[in-house]
Design goal:
This protein is mostly helical. 80% of the residues lie in helices and 0% in strands. The chain contains 4 helices and no strands. The structure holds fe (ii) ion.
Length: 136
């Protein structure tokens, strides 16, 4: 099971809340698969996860622009890669259904990509925001 972990906290409330919801939504996808819910429900939760991730990345990218974050381009590129992976996972579900591989891929995506991204890149961004942008 994937879960939010307090070490992922960045200290910026808006970003932390979005990260937490992102993890909850990924959990909903896995629950839907494990509970054997119908394809429509799994598809809906996967779609929500992808849409919500895109919205969250927009928030971060807006903060990067507003504060002139120096590593913005590289950071946004990782967002695009995560978005692409989310779309690939959705396509995988459409093609093969709720397989063990789908569950493993969603878990790997959240554990590997998203967790590492938050710990390393989002931490660097939020440290920069703390120092260079007025606290919200
Ligand atoms: Fe990010």
């Amino acid at each position: 099971m994937i879960a939010w972990d307090p070490t992922l906290e960045t200290g910026i409330a808006e970003i932390d809340e979005q990260h937490q919801l992102l993890f909850r939504r990924a959990g909903s996808v896995l629950e839907a698969v494990e509970a054997g819910q119908g394809a429509i429900e799994v598809k809906r939760t996967l779609q929500f996860l992808a849409d919500y991730a895109a919205l969250h990345f927009e928030t971060e990218e807006r903060c990067m622009r507003a504060s002139r974050f120096p590593d913005a381009a590289a950071h946004a590129e990782i967002h695009q890669r995560i978005n692409r992976r989310l779309m690939e996972v959705a396509a995988e579900f459409n093609a093969h259904g709720a397989t063990a591989r789908l569950v493993a891929d969603v878990e790997a995506l959240m554990r590997g990509w998203v967790t590492v991204h938050i710990q390393e890149k989002d931490r660097a961004l939020t440290d920069w925001l703390e120092a260079n942008a007025p606290r919200r």
